Amino acid sequence: MKTLNAEILSDVKKALARDKAAALILATITLMTVSGAAHAFTIPVAGSFAYDAFDLVVNQILKGPIGFVGGVVAIVFGATQLLKSWVIALFCIIGGAIAVRADAVVQSLGALV
Question: Given CB 3.0 to 4.6 Å as the disulfide criterion, which of 45, 65, 74, 108 pairs with 96?
Answer without folding.
Answer: 74
